[in-house]
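Recap from last week: sequence in, structure out.
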Amino acid sequence: MKMSSRSCVAILILAVCSVVGACLAADPIPIQGRIQIIGGQAQATVRVASPNPGQPIDCVNPLVGTSGHGHTYPGATAPFGMVQLSPDTRLKTWDGCSGYHYSDKWILGFSHGHLSGTGCSDLGDVRLTPLSGKMDWPTERDGYHLPFSHDKEVAHVGYYAVTLGNPSVKAELTATEHAGMHRYTFPKDQPAHLVLDLIRSIGDGHVVKSGLVAESKTTFSGFRHSEGWAPRKVFYYVIEFSEPCDSWTIQSDGKDATDAKEGQGRHVQAHFDFNSLEKPLGVRVGLSATSVEAARANLKAEIPHWDFDAVVKKTRAQWSDLLGKFVVQSADRAVTETFYTALYHTALAPTMFNDADGSYYGIDRKSHAKADFTYYSTFSLWDTFRAEHPLLTIYQPQRVDDFVNTMLAHYREFGKHSLPVWSLAGDETWCMIGNHAIPVIVDAYAKGFRGFDAEAAYAAMRDVAMQDRNCLGEYRKYGYIPTTMNKEDRKMSVSRTLEYAYDDACIARMAAMLGKTEDAALFAKRAENWQNVFDASVGFARGKTADGKWRDPFHPRELIWPDYTEATGWQYTWSVPQNVPGLIEAMGGDGKFMAKLDGLFTASSEVIAGAPDITGLIGQYAHGNEPCHHVAYLYNYAGAPAKTQARVREVARKFYNNTVEGCCGNDDCGQMSAWYVFTALGFYPVDPASGVYVIGSPVVDRATIKLDPRYHKGKAFTVVAENNSPQNVYIQSATLNGKPLERSWLSHAELTAGGELVLKMGSEPNPAWGAGAANRPPISVK
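Predicted structure tokens:
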């Protein structure tokens, strides 16, 4: 990975230690590691000698991405679980969006809700902090500051543990879908305390009202209503202790009440006191968005006992099943670890937001009893429609219909003619641009998913596209969104135009599949609106006023918020995945298109008026943010797949690894990781709703995807990269199911039918393979 200027050898030495912790389970796993200084950059190479070296779960390091700008969290969760039980080391700052950053030296406590890789902060609900000895309320604004060191920290799939420095308490965490379980080992010669914090949140949110009821000396319950990035969040909880507490104190808006039956207010916290504990204290916490009784039922359904290790075993079994959908081989153990850690991160969101019985709290602020589908939230759609959701159609197809049904429930219950934009905790944040539930729905239908009402889905998509919100009225009026000369105005006119045009292309496809020919023609025409912001005289997508004048002066390395979203003209110009051949023509043909692409990677990496999201730079290519994710694959469309092969390997090598800094930008609910999973396999969905995968250069030597016979025709699809190595990045020839493959793409139907793609690799480009016009990726396939 290309390290930032702030990186240092010391951080990477700690990174090796982090892998030690990540791979520790019930039995110690010996680690071998070394630090190399290459070209002035510190790099960690890690080898793990595992008793089960072929087990994917032993290759995952949840600490990857917790340093730098990855914004991941290291705690315990079940696949797509509602509960993410993880340590909080900070509540503010952009690099603290997950509540944890590897550079921190203290832990504030352990809360039950965390975001993975986002650029905005929220959650951190129902935090517990262990103390021993004298009990005092926290004096710091963000709570207790308990020192810890990474050499006493273990981050492991489904399990997190840390021994705090002062007090000397060992905390262990695990989780199921709707519940968390803690185990605390306190010093035996001092009183023990657990502090419940209902006041503080990750980010800038605040509590509206919260409450706590003492049901017995072992059971406490309550609620927390808060406002933050998600405008309103509701969580109910039930906390149970394995040992009765000797006393407790509830503080409601600054007033203490010992052994009180209940407390309510805007600021509620409590401490539970144990005079002495001869054995570890178990804590079970059930959560729900519908009621206390639902939280209790969730807890009873998932953790009805006090066997902490059994919960760890059960959750790890779920993860083993999920991660085992892919069997990859590489001569480099670090590559295998990077792959499976990325795969792990793709299964942290979307998150379940229903109860164990199917009930959920909808965006209409009503409880909906026992739905016949799993209701999800945490849809980071501007990011995840690109690769995360297409990846889930391959290895988590059983969830896809439920994703769509959740989106349709959102549309029905919201009453605002809107599908999810960026939904969180059952609410809408309205973050980012576009209407990218649309490509997720269309991709699902095009791939044969039929567990939702297609006509209702189409009607919702069409309705959303005909609204006036977020500049859609101007988009329909002008065929583009006019810019403004006020540089403080975050209108993002060019980016919005390009994103809406892609959504329109998806609606056109859905209309065609449903036999709605007039609508198909209407939206296909709108899908070409990208041409209205492409200035052929400069070769960039560029801001244009309502009277048709281009922005002047214009610099393609400048982030101009009236025109672009977290990007520059260099980075957004390529956002025409629905019609790459048309973009090639607009740029003057294959030669000029490739010269322009080359220029993207060789331009100065300086960004004028930069944003923290623009990271992972190679020239002006910015891998740390989503608009560039498909760009390295575009050479295939111009007949030069060897250039794609070289670039995708370069990106994978520079910006991904198995250390704490192994993610060059926000992981964004798995999108950054999904790019690596696809790229490591050897292909990528440039146009995610087209059914086309563009072939790149596989990082792994061999990979088998286990297919689901309920949704797929085949049993397995295997990619074999013969003679693969860091130097042999170029495809010499290819076969698909034993027959020569000259084209530089394959279809979703071919993949899910099962079979074998064999790529013979070499150190020099083969300019003939995939170059012919007939062998380039099509716009779409059935």
